[in-house]
Write a structure and sequence with these properties.
- The protein is 44% helix and 22% strand.
- It has 95 residues and is an alpha+beta fold.
- A 4-stranded antiparallel sheet has the order 1-2-4-3, with helices on one face.
- Helix 2 runs antiparallel to helix 3.
- The termini are far apart.
Length: 95
């Protein structure tokens, strides 16, 4: 079973993920790209990383905007898996 992070752990993690915000026990971020192809390419790269760590985002894409929300449903909130995926996404986006 995956263990939910404490408020302090989440607060500390957000310092390392400054473009992310906490919303309803989900780690959220919106990404803007130059065009649809760039946005979809980003989603493809993230999908490959997510599959490798076996943790998948809630996300949507509208034209050049990708919205991502991370949470671990079986833990009822954020876990280390969400932080690992956020870090992987950060690497794919370049910041």
């Amino acid at each position: 079973m995956t263990i939910k992070l404490t408020d302090l752990e989440i607060s500390n993690a957000l310092k390392e993920l400054p473009d992310w915000e906490l919303n309803d026990d989900k780690l959220c971020r919106v990404f803007e790209f130059d065009d649809f192809i760039s946005a979809f390419s980003f989603m493809t790269r993230v999908a490959i990383r997510a599959e490798k760590i076996d943790h998948h985002p809630e996300w949507s894409n509208v034209y050049k905007t990708v919205s991502i929300a991370l949470t671990t449903h079986d833990a009822g909130g954020l876990t280390a898996k969400d932080l690992a995926l956020a870090e992987a996404i950060k690497m794919e986006f370049g910041r």
